[in-house]
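ARCHIVE RECORD
Type: protein–small molecule complex
Small molecule: adenosine-5'-diphosphate
Source of inputs: curated submission
Record status: active
Notes field left blank by submitter.
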Amino acid sequence: MVSLGISFSCVAAARTTPSLASSPSCSNNKPFASLHTTRSLETSRVPFRLEISYDRRFSAELRWKPSAAARSGSVVATTKPEPLKIMISGAPASGKGTQCELIEKKYGLVHIAAGDLLRAEIGAGTENGKRAKEYMEKGMLVPSEIVVMMVKERLLQPDAQEKGWLLDGYPRSLSQATALEDLRIRPDLFILLDISEDILIERVVGRRLDPVTGKIYHLKYSPPENEEIAARLTQRFDDTEEKVKLRLKTHHLNVEDVLSTYKDVIFKVNGDAPIEDVFVEIDKALSSILEEKSRIDSASMAAGMTH
Ligand SMILES: Nc1ncnc2c1ncn2[C@@H]1O[C@H](COP(=O)(O)OP(=O)(O)O)[C@@H](O)[C@H]1O
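STRUCTURE (tokenized, with ligand):
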């Protein structure tokens, strides 16, 4: 069993403090999940420590432990906890959309997929849509001036602010990440789906979308429930082997820059695993953060009563 400690230090009006940390090594050098961070939230002064333990079968266990200051009761907290704010990233077909469906269902977050916003513009035949399509067909990133405003406006809608958000496939470059940082839009957790390249092609080529429900299927791994659904499934125009190779190249060129912006909140998951197993890991991490947020809220209320 390998243990990794993470400090979540919540200090009033403090900004995030990035720290370097290493992933624990496992027998095949690919840990199932890893999270390493020291970060500050803006709501209270309740330092907690998040501990993750791994065993050699990659099962990860997350535990919040109050630090000495929290145990001693020196707690000053003020505001209500915010809803969850999550980013999910990974190569094309790493399983982002699939996991987002499961997360959305369980946690009620508003799922915002940059690719869907762009495809909607393309479908509506707008000028921005036409320009975006030219880039997407070449496997390139759509220019920031088109995509940044689109995502920002969606994130600031009341539903996303109230229920929390799950941002899928965005930001994809340093300039997009910086634009969000400038707007002080930061996630609680940045989920990174880590997937082997040989598995990607098979996933892309077999991926299908139900245009009626928006559900994603895979002809082999997640087949449609009946003939009626099977008959109406569509394939994305950029889901060909040739295009995915270009998209993958673009992904590799940009991913490190994006990761460097969020290194304090990265949660890395082995995306090669079956859908349910990937979700178990993500679910553990999200419920742990929610627990922590409600613990801060309780501490905040207690502090309000004693001050
Ligand atoms: N863990 C998994 N195991 C097997 N197939 C998967 C897994 N996750 C996703 N898939 C399938 O792979 C394809 C790509 O997944 P998707 O969620 O659309 O990826 P992304 O949103 O990252 O591009 C889909 O057809 C999906 O059903």
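CURATOR ANNOTATION: The chain is about 45% helix and 20% strand.
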